[in-house]
Amino acid sequence: MPETPEPSRRDLLHWTLAAWGAGAVAGIGGILGASAVPRPQPPTTARIPKADLKDGSATASLRGTPFTLLITPAGPVAFSLACTHARCVVAWNAASSEFLCPCHGGRFDAAGRVVAGPPPAPLRRLEVADAGDAWEIRG
Ligand code: FES
């Protein structure tokens, strides 16, 4: 029976580099393949059934950001609840008719305008449409 020759250092180096290269190619292929798969996008429209409104307001989420819909004497309005100072989540306070920010005391009126505190701009207003038995909010 013929003897199998011992692998040389050159052979070992060659196999090591070949294995490393194959692993690198597989890893890059995995990354490229994963990025080619479309990711689900958060909805750009939210529906709030009119029956779900409590005390003339409702809170939901649009593209991962909470918002509040208010029914005012002038009609429905919706605002993103991301504070314009440092993006803390503000909350509608029906008793004072203001959006209150828990982080630095920012306050906004029912029209989203800054009333007090450090926020540099009003709350972002969202589009509201009447869809029969629900309100559709787009932003
Ligand atoms: S994050 Fe709202 S006042 Fe600072």
In brief, what are we looking at here?
With 139 residues, the chain is an alpha+beta fold. Helix content is 20%, strand content 35%. The termini are far apart.
SSE order, as H and E? HEEEEEEEEEE
**CATH architectural label of the domain at 45-138:** 3-layer Sandwich
Bound ligands: FE2/S2 (inorganic) cluster
What is the assigned CATH homologous superfamily of the domain at 45-138?
Answer: Rieske [2Fe-2S] iron-sulphur domain
Briefly, what CATH class of the domain at 45-138? Mainly Beta
Low-pLDDT parts are none
Strand order of the largest sheet: 1-10-9-4-3-2
Number of helices: 1
Number of strands: 10
CATH topology of the domain at 45-138: Rieske Iron-sulfur Protein
Question: What is the CA–CA distance across the termini?
Answer: 79 Å
Proportion of residues in helical segments: 10-25%
**Mass-distribution shape:** elongated
What does the largest sheet look like? 6 strands, antiparallel
Please state roughly what percent of the residues sit in beta strands, choosing from under 5%, 5-15%, 15-25%, 25-35%, 35-45% or over 45%.
25-35%
Give the SSE map.
Blueprint: H1 9-36, E1 45-49, E2 57-62, E3 65-72, E4 75-80, E5 91-93, E6 98-100, E7 107-109, E8 114-116, E9 125-130, E10 134-138
Antiparallel strand pairs: 1-10, 2-3, 3-4, 4-9, 5-6, 6-7, 7-8, 9-10
Bound molecules: FE2/S2 (inorganic) cluster.
